[in-house]
């Protein structure tokens, strides 16, 4: 199968130069997680900007400083396997599709592959997720503050993380968007110590400090259980790739906790995990 068969054609792009506030407006308008970014003069790809990078760096207004420049790129006639291999090699959820002149003509995401290929390929009913799901995953306790939960997500390089109760039982899932939508950018005063050169020491008071204003992402002081999703959609180790893909499409989710027996949490299966089946065909 060719990339052009399932890619999203003519995606919205952001032209440089641009500001953080302009990008935020586009994210709100189009409800996507990332945009290709192009050079306004040449039209060629400059990189990708994600909503996560914009929200986590509130003090940087110039979009050029926030974009990811090392991004996977493919051509429309490339095989789907090539696109999947690039996604996995670079641990990135999307590839930008460009023509021979380097102009953006499409974008292919993990979600596109799940919706338009895996969830429609009934041959995958015979392939279980057992060899693909993540067996070592991070979790957070239900009383974990949102700021700590976000840190856990970033350290795990995950989009969502299971929530457990005092007994270690799975009670919910929390997504990065659940946390970030409760955030706000505030301006705070910071201070730093000044280091004087030896010949200037007589001019400065002891422990001189410099005050400056900085924008920071602030999260409310409440536990993760206040915002977690309690209506769990789960998988089991012997569930097929086809059925998992169907659930992801039906419930608009990118990952499912994997349980065994009486609800014992044994891992998590992500959309990035199940696209590996394409390379094994």
Oligomer: single chain
Total helices: the number is 9
CATH fold description of the largest domain: CBS-domain
Give the CA-CA distance, first to last residue.
12 Å
Which runs of at least 5 residues are low in confidence (pLDDT < 50)? none
- Main sheet: which strands, in order across? 1-7-6-5
Shape: flat
Percentage of residues assigned to helices? 10-25%
Largest sheet: 4 strands, mixed
The chain-level structural class is: alpha/beta
CATH class (first level) name of the largest domain:
Alpha Beta
According to DSSP, the number of beta strands is 14
Mean pLDDT: 88
State which percent range the strand residues make up.
Answer: 25-35%
CATH architecture of the largest domain: Roll
Sequence of secondary-structure elements? HEEHEEHEHEEHEHEEHEEHEEH
Question: Structurally, how many domains make up the residues?
Answer: 3
Radius of gyration: 22 Å
CATH superfamily of the largest domain: CBS-domain
Keywords: CBS domain
Pfam families: CBS
Protein name: CBS domain-containing protein
InterPro entries: CBS_dom, CBS_dom_sf, Diverse_CBS-Domain
Descriptive report:
Residues 7-65, 67-124, 133-194, 228-281 form the CBS domain. InterPro entries: CBS_dom, CBS_dom_sf, Diverse_CBS-Domain. It holds the Pfam family CBS. Keywords: CBS domain. It comes from Thermococcus profundus. The chain has a four-stranded mixed β-sheet with strand order 1-7-6-5. A three-stranded mixed β-sheet has the order 2-3-4. A three-stranded mixed β-sheet has the order 8-9-10. It folds into three domains: 3-116, CBS-domain; 125-176 and 221-278, CBS-domain (Roll), CATH 3.10.580; 184-218, no CATH class. The mean pLDDT is 88. The chain is 25% helix and 27% strand. The radius of gyration is 22 Å and the shape is flat. With 281 residues, the chain is of the alpha/beta class. The chain has nine helices and 14 strands.
